[in-house]
TrEMBL record, chain A:
<feature type="domain" description="GST N-terminal">
    <location>
        <begin position="5"/>
        <end position="84"/>
    </location>
</feature>
<dbReference type="InterPro" id="IPR045074">
    <property type="entry name" value="GST_C_Tau"/>
</dbReference>
<dbReference type="InterPro" id="IPR036282">
    <property type="entry name" value="Glutathione-S-Trfase_C_sf"/>
</dbReference>
<dbReference type="InterPro" id="IPR004045">
    <property type="entry name" value="Glutathione_S-Trfase_N"/>
</dbReference>
<dbReference type="GO" id="GO:0006749">
    <property type="term" value="P:glutathione metabolic process"/>
</dbReference>
<dbReference type="InterPro" id="IPR010987">
    <property type="entry name" value="Glutathione-S-Trfase_C-like"/>
</dbReference>
<protein>
    <recommendedName>
        <fullName>glutathione transferase</fullName>
        <ecNumber>2.5.1.18</ecNumber>
    </recommendedName>
</protein>
<dbReference type="GO" id="GO:0004364">
    <property type="term" value="F:glutathione transferase activity"/>
</dbReference>
<dbReference type="Pfam" id="PF02798">
    <property type="entry name" value="GST_N"/>
</dbReference>
From TrEMBL, chain B:
<dbReference type="GO" id="GO:0006749">
    <property type="term" value="P:glutathione metabolic process"/>
</dbReference>
<dbReference type="InterPro" id="IPR045074">
    <property type="entry name" value="GST_C_Tau"/>
</dbReference>
<comment type="similarity">
    <text>Belongs to the GST superfamily. Tau family.</text>
</comment>
<dbReference type="Pfam" id="PF13417">
    <property type="entry name" value="GST_N_3"/>
</dbReference>
<keyword id="KW-0808">Transferase</keyword>
<feature type="domain" description="GST N-terminal">
    <location>
        <begin position="5"/>
        <end position="84"/>
    </location>
</feature>
<dbReference type="GO" id="GO:0005737">
    <property type="term" value="C:cytoplasm"/>
</dbReference>
<dbReference type="InterPro" id="IPR045073">
    <property type="entry name" value="Omega/Tau-like"/>
</dbReference>
<feature type="domain" description="GST C-terminal">
    <location>
        <begin position="91"/>
        <end position="227"/>
    </location>
</feature>
């Protein structure tokens, strides 16, 4: 049991992908060294740890780097299988469903959000918003299906899909100011609204997610990269 | 053979993502009903099974629907863990490496050759070909680093990453015939070139991978479809 187990996380404070990893580490009760990166002046450590993408997050476990937030989440769950709660479900079918929704979030939610945020033209922006809201509506259905009346996508406790979406929460909460539309509302997405309340109340969320006001200000300077 | 329940796969024979799943099923020695889909005229079963994405592959196991090729392959590996070889490595670090490169390939390799298919000008095509060659150089390095001198990404026999990369080879072969580009050559990517030959010789690949003629025919069909859509949009304006 004794012996060094060293975890280091390379990240940036605003990155939702980094937030995902912080959430997972906190939920598992794991201690780690966090090293804030300057993406305008990339460190040697970042460049050697992630030579392919040169991006954050990078989790370095006992000197070995793991890259890509989703890959890192599954790694944490597997390398620390007996520590803290399980992040993925144990049943293979439920695992497949969780993996599908995490991939859906990454493929479908982020791009229209970015369009809604950065578009110069009114038509483009409206289209981005429309697509984003359609995706959010689908996720409302996903939450209903996965939670089966329980508080989280993972059921009674936070799981893989919760973490994947939860990492994006500060952005989602800042969407009204940044994109000009509320992503969630009581009429269309009551389950997600309630989920947001529950998730932000978690200790892990308080530590892992950036302050929404600070994030919105930073995003507005357009120096934001996600 | 152990009870595998009722297995159905909705697919398209030339889809790399379907090829990947079929190879996984073959590795586990599973029998299943394969139902080829017409993606230009989507079936009710496909639309009902995958209402969110309307895509293949779709695995239906004892009435349960499993979507997304990576999720399906991992599902197959987990449910039938006791049958056949392990598709994913056992060690968490090796699993992370396999998943990382699989995601890379599905993003960068796939978008490069889809771009080559869709290119309407020579310049556009050459751009995408350069992208493709850069990706293959990365994969050559990845193979050198991760195979430990063995025959496949996974070691002595094929595994998750071999399936993830290998399933795209049918399109590289087709594009070589269609556009004359040399993607894998003994000069620039010797390891990958040798690996690709070994991959094509595996039982699973021989069983599942369609011949290049079929792939080229489908590419022509898609091109015609795209042209028709563009023409319709032009007259509609």
């Amino acid at each position: 049991m004794a012996g060094e187990d060293e975890l280091k996380l390379l990240g940036t404070w605003a990155s939702p992908w980094v937030s995902r990893v912080k959430l997972a580490l906190h939920l598992k009760g794991l201690s780690y060294e966090y090293v804030e990166q300057d993406l305008d002046n990339k460190s040697d450590l970042l460049l050697t740890s992630n030579p392919v993408h040169k991006k954050v997050p990078v989790l370095i476990h006992n000197g070995k780097p793991i890259c890509e937030s989703v890959v890192i989440l599954e790694y944490i769950d597997e390398a620390y299988g007996t520590t803290g709660p399980s992040l993925l479900p144990t049943d293979p079918y439920e695992r497949a469903i969780a993996r599908f929704w995490v991939d859906y979030i990454d493929q479908k939610l982020v791009i229209p959000w970015k369009v809604a945020f950065t578009a110069d033209g009114e038509e483009e922006k409206t289209e981005g918003i429309k697509q984003m809201l359609a995706v959010v509506q689908t996720l409302e259905g996903a939450l209903k299906e996965c939670s089966k009346g329980k508080p989280f996508f993972g059921g009674d406790s936070v799981g893989y899909v919760d973490i994947a979406l939860g990492g994006l929460l500060a952005f989602l909460q800042g969407t009204e100011e940044l994109c000009g539309t509320k992503p969630f509302d009581i009429a269309n997405t009551p389950l997600l609204l309630a989920w947001v309340e529950r998730f932000t109340a978690l200790d892990a969320a308080k530590v892992a997610l950036p302050d929404v006001t600070k994030l919105v200000e930073f995003a507005k300077t357009k120096r934001l990269r996600i | 053979m152990a009870a595998e329940g009722d297995l159905k796969l909705l697919g398209l024979s030339v889809s790399p993502f379907v090829v990947r799943v079929r190879m996984a099923l073959h590795m586990k020695g599973l029998s299943y009903e394969y139902i080829e889909q017409d993606l230009f005229n989507k079936s009710e079963l496909l639309l009902k099974s995958n209402p969110v994405e309307k895509k293949v592959p779709v695995l239906i196991h004892d009435g349960k629907t499993i979507l997304d090729s990576s999720a399906i392959v991992q599902y197959i590996d987990e449910v039938w863990a006791a049958m056949g070889p392990s598709i994913l490595p056992v060690d968490p670090n090796e699993r992370a490496t396999a998943r990382f490169w699989a995601a890379y390939v599905d993003d960068k390799l796939f978008s490069a050759y889809v771009g080559i298919n869709k290119a309407t000008t020579e310049v556009e095509r050459e751009e995408k070909v350069s992208e493709m060659l850069a990706v293959l150089e990365q994969l050559e390095e990845a193979f050198a680093k991760n195979s430990n001198g063995k025959a496949f990404f996974a070691g002595d026999s094929i595994g998750y990453l071999d399936l993830a990369v290998g399933c795209h080879l049918l399109w590289l072969k087709a594009q070589h015939k269609m556009f004359g580009v040399v993607f894998l050559d003994a000069g620039k990517t010797p390891l990958l070139e040798a690996w690709a030959k070994r991959f094509a010789e595996t039982d699973a690949a021989k069983e599942v991978v369609p011949d290049t003629g079929m792939v080229m025919e489908y590419a022509k069909k898609r091109q015609a479809y795209r042209a028709a859509v563009a023409a319709a949009a032009a007259t509609a304006k």
